[in-house]
Amino acid sequence: MTTDPLVSAVHARTPLSGVDVIDAHAHLGPYSLFFTPDPSADAMVRVMDRCGVRRTILSATMAIELDARRGNEQTAEATERHPGRLCGYVVVNPHQDPAAELSRWATHPGMVGLKLHPSLHHYPVTGPRYADAWAYAEETGRPVLVHTWTGSDVDDPEQVAEVARRYPKAKVLLGHSGARPDGFARAIELAATHPNLYLEICGSHFTGRWLTRMVAALGAHRVIYGSDFPFIDLRYSIGRVVFAELDLADRATVLGGAIRTLLEEKS
């Protein structure tokens, strides 16, 4: 019988306890590219309760796909419906008045960071239309979650690293850590070179073995847990951390401590 409290909770089918879990990558609302059974805020919180997740930071798919203004409104509404459980990323679409969206949500207590999705926006992360977002990130200290895909011409991790170099005070999360197994090693190398880059680990191709390699290379404080719910089941994503070959302190840091520090929260 294991004495590991996280593994024991999974075996007992009970929520994780004794560890502060914060999901740093989730979405709200239906998505045009594939079906998700229930992409609502209420469903997110129900799954969080089953797993022992205290808090989730999400962005509306409406915002990353079609209408940043309306989508950010949906995100804000979700944070108000579930205060303390759901927080939001302000999505900045480079084609839809970024400065206005940044100004509009600057003081909203539920909006704690920024989300950029260059692939869906069809615009390179290094482009000047994202400049307002990066300046805002440096000024406020709020983290920026950037969708990345190895080999992309708009958001390959190499391009995000270039932005991190230009804006050294920005806290930049490499969403999916490049997404593809052929890019994970390079994402680790880039994060090792740029201290303001953090590896966020959600994705269909990610494994517990890659997590242990990331922690060994960078330290657990540079690795961020995310689920990509409802695109990927939160329970599957959290299991990869729970059963990773890491000590309890490192798994606790990945599951919540690292992003909590970036948000400048106390436990």
TrEMBL record:
GO terms for cellular component: cytoplasm. Keywords: Hydrolase, Lyase. One of its GO terms (molecular function) is hydrolase activity. Residues 22-261 form the Amidohydrolase-related domain. This is Metal-dependent hydrolase. One of its GO terms (biological process) is secondary metabolic process. It holds the Pfam family Amidohydro_2.
